[in-house]
Amino acid sequence: MTILGIDPGSNSTGYGIITSDQTNGFSCIEYGVIRAQEKAEPWQRLKKIYDEILQLCHRFLPDQVALEDIFYGHNIQSALKLGQARGVAIIAAINAGAEIAAYSPREVKLALTGYGAASKEQVQKMVRELLRMGEPATPLDASDALAVALCHAQRYWTLLKTNYKS
Fold first, then answer.
1. 3-class DSSP state for residue 103?
2. pLDDT tens, position by position, 56-111
3. N or C: which end of the chain has fewer CB within 10 A?
4. Strand 12-20 and strand 26-35: pairing?
């Protein structure tokens, strides 16, 4: 199964593509960051996210797309911008025919490190170990996207095994 993980952001959207099998074997295919020009208008940034996510979906044909849910902070403007970036990423994935899943940052951290308040660096270290990477995935947005994909793979196979036994 191929999974595209997305860590949405209005300035920097991380992505990571992994493959996973029923034995929790994981492989990293590609990761990176979608960056909009600093002086671009908000709708131009959103279009860039949409276009690049759609292109990734057409190129890698993910079976599933997993996104990080919005972190509930105190800055409403930041939350709105993040929600817009997340929305265009979801629409791009849906238009490419992928199934969608979403996880809170706490769920992702818990799935990878066993600790829901783990630091980004702790998550990055576990991503490196689980994907048997020589170097850690950078920047952290890309590492976070790979973490979301790994979280989804673990949840997906666990749920499948649980449903198979019942």
1. strand
2. 999 999 999 999 997 766 788 888 999 999 999 999 999 999 999 999 999 999 99
3. C
4. antiparallel
Q: How many residues does the chain have?
A: 166
Q: What six digits make up the tokens of 128?
A: 């490196």
Active-site residue, selected from the candidate residues 63, 68, 69, 121: 68
Q: Which of 7, 38, 107, 121 is labelled catalytic?
A: 7
Active site residue 68: yes
β-strand pairing of 99-103 with 12-20: unpaired
Residue-range definition of the domain harbouring residue 77 = 2-165
Q: Catalytic site residue 21? A: no
pLDDT digits (tens, 9 = 90+) for 13-35: 999 999 998 777 899 999 999 99
Q: 21, 52, 69, 141: which is the annotated catalytic residue?
A: 141
Residue 154 CA to residue 157 CA, distance in Å, equals 6
Q: Which residues, including other chains, have CB under 8 Å from residue 37's CB and lie 6 or more apart?
A: 44, 45
Residue 24, token pair as written in the block: 């929790």
- The answer, as to whether pTM is greater than 0.90, is yes
- Look at phi and psi of residue 5 and say left if phi exceeds 0, alpha if psi is from -120 to 50, else beta: beta
- CATH number of the domain enclosing 105: 3.30.420.10
